[in-house]
Structure formats: structure tokens, C-alpha cells
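The instructor's notes for this session suggest beginning with a concrete chain rather than abstract definitions. Hand out the sequence below and ask the class to guess, before any prediction is shown, which regions might be ordered.
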Amino acid sequence: AKGVVSYHDVLLYPEDVDTILPGAWLNDNILSFAFEWLAHDHPTLSNHNEQIALLPPSIVQMIFALDTKDLSVLLESWQLPNKSIILLPVSDSRELDTARSGSHWTLLVWHRTSHRLLLYDSMQHGWSQKHILMAEKLSRLVEQPILPNQRISSACPTQHNAYDCGIHVLSNAEQVIAEYLDVEQRYLQRNTRQYLMDLVRRLQDN
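After discussion, reveal the predicted structure:
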């Protein structure tokens, strides 16, 4: 179809790309696209998939919706028990089959070595019931306990509008991976929307 961009496991449609524009709320497909880029094509952070799992919103919503026994089979290829860090963008949507009905994105990050699950919330709302449920399910998926005192609200920049939560999720995700790999370069810390749009346009031109 005209205007469709194919990138790894993501198909971007024009309505997805529109959510990159200033003042828009990044949708789940754009977050999936950005996570694929972080995993595969980021200039300094990519190709560490044996250590790092960047779960797209569709997988995160599946974890929220399904029983753990079903998830263990469906997510076997992700090898979550073997990952050093796992990043999960969480929508506040309470619907079981989609993240698109939500109005706020946050980021959960599991660190295996420190046995901590960190919440990055640019509105500083703290741990919701959905986050706690995700922690309980993730505990079973990584085959390690995640106790209440291991659920930490991490300091992070605060958003100053109603729509930049997805931008903060991507910026925080890049920061987390860069710190883990001890790499200095950052690409999503400033002018994030413009950088994402430039990535999409380069793909459209190829």
C-alpha cells in the first residue's frame, strides 16, 4: 500500500507516522518501530540481543492479558530467563487486546543482576495496579522473584504536557541501554520526534 514502511517486524502506515508530529501521542506501532531500531540499527546500542530484550507494546499487552502458562510457550523465542535487562513499554490501557485505548506510556525495566524492576514514569504517578500485575507475571517469566521492595520508581525527567510520554519512554529506554553498555552516544535525547521522522523518511526513500 502507498505510504507503508516495512521495517523488521513492523509495518508503519501513514496514520502511525502522523503520531510522530509535534503535539501527538506516539502510538504503539511507532514505539515498536523505535524499539526495533534500538535493537537492530542504533549506531552504538544495537546487536546486543543476547543480553537485552526490547519487548514491543503488543507483547507487553499480551503479558497483561494472558495466563502465564500460555505466555511461557508464546514467548519462548525471547529467552527472557537469559536476558540481563528487559524493557517493557506499558500503556495505561485496561483493555486486554490493545494498548491503543490508553492515554499514558511508562517504561518498566528488569535488571537481572541487581534483581530490581524499575519504573520510569514521566508523570510521576508511581506504581499502578497494572504495573504490579506486570511485575507478578514478569517474575514468573524470568523465573526469579520480584518482591515489593525490588519494585523501584526511578528518577527520570518529567513531561510538561499531555502527549510526550512516549517520547520519554524512548529517551529513557536509550539511556538505560547506554548506561548498561557503558556507551556515551545518545540519539533520542533531543529532538526525538525529528530524529524518528528522519528515520522513517530514509526508509521511505530506500
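Then share the key points. The radius of gyration is 16 Å. Helices lie at 14-17, 28-40, 57-65, 68-74, 129-142, 165-181, 192-205.
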